[in-house]
Each structure stands twice: as structure tokens, then as C-alpha cells.
Amino acid sequence: MKVTILGSGTSTGVPRIGNDWGECDPGEPRNRRSRVSIVIRTEDGQRILIDTSPDLRQQLQDNGIDKIDAVFWTHDHADHCHGIDDLRALRYGRGGPIPGFAGDVTVQRLRRRFDYVFAGQFGYSTIVNLEPLDRLRMICGLSVDWCEMPHGPVKSTAFRFDSNAGSVVYATDFSEITTDMVAMMDGCDTLIVDCLRRDPHPTHAHLAMALELARTVGARRAVLTHLDKSMDYRTLCDEVPPNVEVGYDGMEIEI
Question: What region holds the Metallo-beta-lactamase domain (predicted)?
Fold first, then answer.
């Protein structure tokens, strides 16, 4: 497997509107962060997209991606789903809708807010066939597992994908570590993990929590994502343990 981090920033991106870089060095290209999403590519070239950020069109262009084989959503917050209309271009030339998956609550909310994507309208084809995760066990030749994570007052879904080559867990937008999370992520090869800032936050993991999760589940490698303007790339690289890397837009991770 190969994972491409399409976006590694928080909900406002870096820099924020107004050219606000915070503590991030504008001269370091890896500090320029779009909203979070990733693509997983299997050995036979199939691609799984996780989340449709508001920056999705440019992310796909920047990484030369013109097709996907499935799409997953962690939850329905704007920075994770408001680029959903850009899936229209990925529907062209397909024999049917793109398979899509999310937790039950996210399925309900997405269908209500973006009904035309999942049911078609005015002669336009359905873009995504959206299903809950209940019966999903395999996708694109990979085994799939998931769990719900506390994200302040709501939930976000973490995903695990396993192949013969190894495993990757994507766990963004969580505010505490639960026994279900540890059980699902245990022994993973690569953990891509929420890390908003250094100080605690009511709805996101901070640096100490992200590192704690990586240690607790025994991840061989951890990659930090969902970083805000206080998290300068080079400064943060000097703070983290040897098996932890700071994610950035366009980063490719071999599993």
C-alpha cells in the first residue's frame, strides 16, 4: 500500500485567511496546509479516498489523481466533507456510482445535506452509492476495520486497512483515547493521527495525546496530521521521537 496525504491542516488551513501563518515559517513549503484528507493506493492500483475536504479539487490535481474506487467519510464536519461536489468529475466514465461508506450518523447527515450526490437529480446520475459500515469487511482487496472516537460532543470514525504488506490506521478528530480505539489500532504498522496543537483542546488531540496513542497501540510509525498554525514543521520535527513524523501535503507513505 501507499498513502498520500492530500491535506494535513486544520479546519482553517495554514495560512489562515489574512495570510496568518501564526508560528509557522512561511518559507517552509511543508507549512502550507490544506484541509485533511488522504488517498490509499493498493498494490494493484486501486485508490481509496478518505474525506472530501473543501480543497479536494486542487489536492487531486496536485497529486495527479483522476480516479478513485471508493470513498470513506470520518464525519460530516465542513472541513471533511464540503468538497463532496468534486466527486462529480471522478464519476465520469464509470459504469456506476462510486462506492461510499461512513458511520450511521454520518450517512444520515450526508444524505440530508447532499441529497443530489446520493440520489441523482434532474437527469444527472447518482455520484456515490453511500452505505453504512455495518457489513463492510473488505474493500479493493484490503480488509477494513473501524471504530467510533469521541470528538468533543460528537463522534468521528477511525479506519484501519490491512493487506499482506501491512496495516495503516487513519485516526483524525478525536479528543480522548478509548479502549475501543486501542483494540482496533493495536499493533498497526502506520498510524496517521490527529495532532492539532501542543496545548489541550476540547475536541481534538494535542501533541502529548497523539504520542500517547502511538505508544499505547505499539504503532511502528506515526504520522501527525490536522496541524494548526502553531505547529511549525521543522520545529515540531525536532520535538518528536524517531518513529514519529510530521505530516505535510503531498507526503507519500509506503506501507
Answer: 34-226
